[in-house]
Write a structure and sequence with these properties.
Strand content: under 5%
Shape: globular
Order of helices and strands: HHHHHHHHHHHHHHHHHHHHH
Helix content: 55-70%
Number of domains: 1
Number of helices: 21
């Protein structure tokens, strides 16, 4: 055993270690692309078809009724219809890999600016190792579904980091861009008002309106009653928020769906086949209001402590839980909460075992690939919404850090002071090669 540890330490301390790791990543990504990714087109086909509908000026909800995202996303996918499918998949894969690395770098940056003291190279390596390991299942889920969550997440993380640095304009624009692509980050708008960051909130609102109406500035749906954005609001957004599946061309959130990992999905599974199912909407609102009250209490407790990164992690969890539909790949945004809790365990002066227990439980219920556990266990976890409960557990440790930030060495400096604490060698637009 001693010889094994010595060999590992020697290999890890090799002067060309980073070069070998990047090479292994390149080989792994190339193998995955040719053996799986390009052979099973999934989300990329959906996005390309929606872009074609937009280019042909057809009504999106009729032309491609499965596409339920904001038309702005179809707009930015317009270049994909001009290139062969294999090239589109290659470009999409490269963008997803780059965004995955970028997200990890941004989360590390947020951790370093949140927790006081020096972070040695060894500490950073441990942070990356465990943060990525716990998040790996959700990262792979994005690749499996060819989702665009890793395209949206950097915009959210940049918005949170810019807010912590006091760069309100950049924060507002970045969060607006994320919301225009995927509507759920809209939850950050009331948060900005709550934090009295009115400049960021105003920029957020103005930029969001501009981004959302971009498709309507260039195209108009032939035969449509409304423009692209207003039609989406009427047929998708409002129908989902009001629990009115009859008004939606594709009520993707409706019913007891074990793949829906939001509060709605968990409640639907719990009440399915019971006498309470007839009052589902009432129970759903009660559950959502209770959850909002808990989130509100946590944000209220952190309001005067300038815990922007922790607030951002809480809002990310709230987005996942309050959304009408949260799939497994959507949970890739838990990278930030995982990084913060791993850092909290590393820096904790007390109660580190609670963080370890929460991370272990979260990984057990959400992080173990289905291919290496018994099928019966995987089905049990899926049908009982254990991923939802494992995610809610993260709020316990985040709440503990809010209550006593000094016990974790968490910085409570004002935004201007946080900017001065950030090492110059890590710019906000850190490249994936750094």
């Amino acid at each position: 055993m001693t010889g094994l540890k010595s060999a590992f330490a020697k290999a890890w301390g090799h002067p060309h270690r980073d070069r070998y790791l990047w090479g292994a990543l390149y080989v792994g990504c190339t193998a995955y692309f040719f053996l799986r990714y390009i052979r099973h087109p999934a989300g990329a086909v959906l996005y390309r078809d929606a872009a074609q509908c937009l280019w042909d000026q057809k009504v999106l909800q009729v032309c491609d009724w499965i596409f339920t995202y904001n038309p702005t996303f179809a707009f930015i996918m317009l270049p994909s219809i001009a290139i062969p499918m294999w090239l589109m998949l290659a470009v999409w894969f490269a963008i997803t890999v780059a965004c995955a690395i970028w997200c990890c770098r941004l989360c590390e940056r947020l951790v370093v600016t949140t927790f006081q003291g020096e972070w040695s190279d060894r500490d950073r390596e441990l942070l990356r190792l465990f943060g990525i390991l716990i998040s790996l299942k959700f990262i792979l889920a994005v690749f499996e579904n060819q989702g665009f969550d890793l395209l949206v997440l950097p915009a959210v993380l940049i918005g949170i980091l810019a807010l912590a640095q006091g760069r309100d304009v950049l924060s507002g624009v970045s969060l607006a861009a994320a919301t225009a692509l995927k509507v759920t980050p809209l939850l950050f708008l009331p948060y900005l008002i709550f934090k009295r960051r009115f400049v960021a909130a105003a920029v957020f609102a103005a930029a969001l309106i501009l981004f959302c109406f971009l498709p309507d500035m260039f195209f108009h749906p032939q035969g449509g009653v409304h423009g692209y954005f207003l039609a989406w609001v009427h047929d998708v957004a409002i129908a989902g928020l009001t629990e009115n599946p009859a008004a939606a061309p594709h009520p993707f959130w409706n019913g007891a769906n074990p793949l829906n990992l939001s509060l709605r999905g968990a409640l639907a599974l719990a009440l399915d086949g019971t006498s309470y199912a007839s009052d589902f909407k009432t129970w759903l609102r009660v559950l959502q209001l209770a959850f909002v009250a808990v989130i509100g209490a946590m944000l209220l407790a952190s309001r005067k402590k300038d815990l922007i990164a922790i607030d951002g992690a809480i809002l990310i969890i709230a987005i996942l839980m309050l959304s009408p539909m949260s799939s497994r790949d959507h949970f890739v945004s838990l990278i930030l909460p995982y990084y913060l809790i791993v850092a909290g365990v590393m820096r904790a002066q007390r109660a580190a075992f609670i963080g370890v227990a929460i991370l272990v439980l979260s990984f057990w219920f959400t992080g173990i690939p289905r291919e290496i556990v018994p099928h019966a266990y995987s089905e049990f976890v899926k049908m009982h919404s254990d991923s939802v409960y494992a995610t809610l557990l993260l709020l316990v440790y985040l709440g503990m850090m809010i209550r006593s930030p000094k016990s974790w060495g968490i910085s409570q400096a004002a935004p201007a002071q946080i900017v001065q604490q950030i090492p110059e060698r890590e710019p906000l637009h850190a490249t994936t090669s750094s």
